[in-house]
Write a structure and sequence with these properties.
The structure is a single chain. With 262 residues, the protein is of the alpha/beta class. The protein has ten helices and ten strands. The strands form two sheets. Strands 1-2-3-4-5-6-7-10 form an eight-stranded parallel barrel, surrounded by six helices. Strands 8-9 form a two-stranded antiparallel sheet. Strand 4 (103-106), helix 5 (117-133) and strand 5 form a beta-alpha-beta unit. The relative contact order is 0.14.
């Protein structure tokens, strides 16, 4: 198990500035949220990779800034737009592979869509095949505003696509009224990545030293499930103060995990 921070936590700070801070703080792992088309340019990616390598930070995943366009690009009935959308996402897949990441995160279609689940699963499988051809995998995220925010949809997806992989986002599970541990047990070894956050009276997306989230208990469940992937803090910028609150959360995760090994 490896612990880290998503560059999304720093938004709207520039992605390269977020990378510099993570590398200088020697954070073990990072998810890179690419925020604009120019951040897919080879020269930008080279500098980003060099920054992380200097700090010994492993990039584990990439998150596209076009997530909000996925219903239009990837899940409409217009086949040509889907084909073009796959070509666009191939750039993310290639960027992820270049940065040394294993995964690219997908939000998917909006929950109001009335189309069949089978249509969604077929589109997902085709997009995942494109990811595989670039040496990475697609991860379906449980986002509250999307179809995959529901536990029954995720269970059906796992049954229809036994090789599909998932990222479990704790704050999104809370917002959807879903039990994160129940989702974890349903998806089992298909969960490869965690978007971590704490919670409590102050809100549903907090650093781990605030609130009452049972961090050790959650890690124990991950461990019992045989999880060996990445756990990254993903907060919004107004959920915390100084950047050091992020690294403090990583330290809490590392300490809690070490305590399980005793």
């Amino acid at each position: 198990m490896i612990f880290g921070i998503s560059t999304a936590c720093f938004y709207p700070e520039l992605t390269e500035k977020a990378a510099e801070w993570l590398a200088s703080a020697k954070i073990p792992a990072a998810e890179v949220f690419l925020n604009s088309p120019s951040e897919l340019a080879p020269e930008f990616l080279r500098k980003l990779r060099d920054t992380f390598q200097r700090g010994g930070t492993q990039v584990v995943s990439v998150h596209p800034f076009t997530s909000g366009l996925e219903p239009l690009l990837l899940f409409s009935e217009y086949e040509r737009r889907f084909t073009d959308g796959v070509d666009l996402y191939r750039r993310y897949f290639e960027a992820a592979a270049y940065l040394g990441a294993s995964y690219v995160v997908l939000h998917g279609d909006r929950k109001e869509r009335q189309g069949s689940w089978e249509f969604y699963f077929e589109r997902y499988a085709r997009l995942d095949e494109a990811a595989k051809s670039c040496g990475v995998r697609l991860l379906q995220e449980n986002v509250e505003r999307c179809r995959a925010g529901r536990g029954d949809f995720l269970a059906a997806m796992k049954k229809a696509l036994p090789n599909a992989l998932f990222v479990l986002d704790l704050k999104q599970a809370r917002r959807a009224g879903e039990d994160a541990l129940a989702l974890l047990r349903t998806l089992g070894s298909s969960v490869r990545h965690i978007h971590m956050s704490g919670c409590g009276p102050e809100g549903d997306c907090l650093p781990l030293h605030r609130g009452d989230f049972d961090c050790r208990g959650f890690l124990r469940e991950l461990n019992d499930q045989g999880f060996s992937g990445s756990v990254v803090m993903e907060l919004y910028r107004d959920n915390y103060g100084a950047y050091e609150e992020l690294s403090q959360s990583v330290s809490i995760l590392e300490k809690a995990f070490r305590s399980l090994e005793r």
